[in-house]
Automatic annotation (TrEMBL):
Membrane topology per record: Multi-pass membrane protein
Organism field: Poecilia reticulata (Guppy)
Protein name as annotated: Progestin and adipoQ receptor family member VII, a
Subcellular location: Membrane
A cellular component annotation (GO) from this entry: plasma membrane
Sequence similarity: Belongs to the ADIPOR family.
Transmembrane segments: 77-97, 109-132, 144-165, 177-198, 242-260, 317-338
Main subcellular localisation: membrane
Superkingdom of the organism of origin: Eukaryota
Lineage, broadest ranks: Eukaryota, Metazoa, Chordata, Craniata, Vertebrata
Gene Ontology MF annotations: metal ion binding; nuclear steroid receptor activity; steroid binding
Length: 352
């Protein structure tokens, strides 16, 4: 017994010793990693309003940008907030797989779409904030992928709300209309965000915000209309309604911080590394996602008799098909907008 205890203590000690060596190993792996620079040392399209320091230099090798995950710069927390959310979503998916038969139960597929779309948006967000600083082309490419992830998440929200959260009256009036419209709104949201990024520095800042916020707001209002009706008819017997309220509250809060960068505006120079509104937006959006997943799981478990009566056996497969259609549509939009970016960059090179 004593030997087993000593072996366990030895393993813990070795693990702690290895953890302490991580900073040294990173330093040895990248002994010449350049430090951060100010906003005046990077092109205008990389600058964030009211953030003046902490930018990574451009045109470094890929290794530098991957290792910058462990470097202090103004994107570090943007990367880590969604990286941690991505890892927690994987854990959540594993937990759900223990109780939900995603293979044989077609009625569980909307819930799976929501989780997969959540993994998509958080994963693409990590790539955008981690690798988008290499060049102007990479900046547009990875942020366009980020917008594809956002559009997928919007569709995932729509499908779980219409499948599990809707009531009979709304289902009867929206059947055949709700999900095709949600698909269109998701694609329009992707297009608006990509176009806003494309014209980011040739148009005033408010143009970018309008392109990003208006389509996303329309999609949100449409996708969450079944939940809004549930909240208006709040019942203490409804186990999921509190989590639906939580996801709405978190989403409205994160939308505020995404639209209005108040923290860095009124605390100039103090939020360059920690405290940016976009970092708060990431945290609140992740909280919204986990509330939404749990609310949808509760609806899947406790409202089964209702949605079995409302939805035909082929509905779930149809919605999976629309999910794939949305993904393909957003990919085509991204390819089109990236082609326009390349034309602009080629024109700039010719002028030089």
């Amino acid at each position: 017994m004593a030997t087993m205890v000593m072996e366990s203590i030895g393993r813990v000690f070795i693990s702690r010793q290895q953890i302490r060596q991580v900073p040294r190993l990173l330093t040895e792996a990248a002994p010449s990693m350049p430090g951060t620079v100010t906003d005046s040392e990077v092109p205008a399209y990389f600058r964030e309003r009211y953030v003046s320091t902490g930018y990574r230099p451009l045109k470094q090798n890929w290794r530098y940008y991957f290792l910058s995950l462990f470097q202090r710069h103004n994107e570090t927390l943007n990367v880590w907030t969604h990286l941690l959310a991505f890892l927690l979503l994987l854990v959540k998916l594993r937990q759900l797989a223990d109780t939900v038969d995603f293979v044989n139960d077609r009625h569980s597929w909307p819930l799976l779409i929501l989780v997969l779309s959540s993994l998509t948006y958080s994963g693409f967000s990590v790539l955008a904030h981690l690798l988008g600083g290499k060049s102007e082309l990479c900046h547009h490419l990875f942020y366009f992928l980020d917008y594809v992830g956002v559009a997928q998440y919007q569709y995932g929200s729509a499908v779980v709300h219409f499948y599990y959260a809707v009531d009979e009256t709304m289902h009867r009036s929206m059947q055949g209309l709700f999900m095709p419209t949600a698909t269109i709104f998701s694609c329009l949201s992707c297009l608006g965000c990509c176009y806003g990024k494309y014209c980011n520095h040739t148009q005033p800042c408010w143009v970018r915000k309008v392109c990003q916020v208006v389509p996303s707001a329309l999609a949100y209002m449409w996708d969450n209309s079944p939940v809004a009706k549930r909240l208006l008819l709040w019942s203490n017997d409804d186990l999921a309604v509190a989590y639906h309220f939580g996801q709405v509250a978190f989403f409205l809060s994160c939308s505020f911080f995404f639209t209005f960068p108040l923290l860095e505006r009124y605390l100039p120079g103090r939020c360059d590394f920690v405290g940016q509104s976009h970092q708060v937006f990431h945290v609140l959006l992740s909280c919204c996602t986990f509330c939404q997943i749990h609310a949808s799981y509760l609806d899947y478990v406790h409202r089964r008799q209702l949605y079995l009566r409302l939805h035909e056996s082929g509905d779930a497969a149809l919605f999976v098909g629309l999910y794939v259609f949305t993904l393909v549509g957003c990919a085509l939009i991204t390819a089109f907008m990236l082609k326009k970016v390349k034309h602009v960059l080629d024109f700039k090179m010719k002028l030089k």
